[in-house]
Amino acid sequence: MRFSFWPGPNNTWADTLELVRHAESTGWDGAWFADHFMPNTPEAAGPTSECWTTLAGLAAAVPRIRLGALVSGNTYRHPAVLANIAATADNISGGRIVLGLGAGWQENEHQKYGIPFYTLKERMDRFDEACQVVTGLLNNERATFQGRFYQLDDAPLDPKPVQQPLPLLVGGGGEKRTLRIAAKYANEWNVWGTPEVLKHKMGVLDQHCADIGRDPAQIERSAQALIFLTDDPAVKERAAGGGRAAIAGTPGEVRAVIEQFRDIGLNEFIVPDFTLGRSVDQKKTAMDTFISEVAKGLR
Fold first, then answer.
1. Which CATH superfamily is domain 2-171 in?
2. 173 near 204, Cβ under 8 Å?
3. Which parts of the chain sit beneath pLDDT 70?
4. Of 10, 93, 160, 182, whose CB count within 10 A is highest?
């Protein structure tokens, strides 16, 4: 199982670079970055670094680990433009980029920037077509596509990515549409969740693969949860009721949960920095504890 790090987009570029370089030097396997432009709060206030600019900078500055978007909102960029961005970033990295893509969900970004938000069904319909556009451009010399929302006319993408194929990761847990889209197009799939949630959704994904005749082993699976390294019962209780998937406890207790992820076949566990401390030094200390005491022996 791989272990990857997820610095929040509220970090400065200098802090993001320091944290990801630390992850690389201490044995982590990858780094991910969210694709958002502002916090998901009523006031929409606070620094938020743009995803693909950050990934390109990391691709040039951090030479070993995988780098990916978790995940790009399809509504923010035409999928042909996104495919070109990802291919260029892959060339900068020497072949380490993962193109994470989702339907888009954060409504305030659309409202503030005047980007059409559409209905959930419309976003999912566009997402399905976008996956076809992206894979067509990345995997073929020329691509032609006539969809309801997107059209390609003998379209080039040059230079091609270093990786063949450049991995497309589909993000989300919707069982009727998102997981079916993942079954059709994804090299990797990601969702927030506990081992129980992941086990169920992986079964749904496998069934979608069976329905279309695809080997489910062709799709790698990753997940993330908030990590609280603590022996404080009050912190554990708050984490359990926080609304997001969370794992709280001593390193040994957290390791026991990560072992459950491994046992159900998870390929990669991603650790967000959101709960690892306020300062860079606090985050680095928590990262070191996780990689040396939780992840050790689980690869």
1. Luciferase-like domain (3.20.20.30)
2. no
3. none
4. 182
What is the DSSP secondary structure assignment for residue 230, as one 8-state letter? Answer: -
Element (H, E) at 226: strand 226-229
Query: Domain limits of the chain?
Result: 2-171, 225-299
Per-residue tokens: 259: 């072992």
What residues contact residue 253 under an 8 Å CB cut-off, 6+ apart? none
* Number of residues that make up the chain: 299
Tokens of 130: 């976008």
Encode pLDDT of 180-200 as tens digits.
999 999 999 999 999 999 999
Q: Tell whether pTM > 0.90.
A: yes
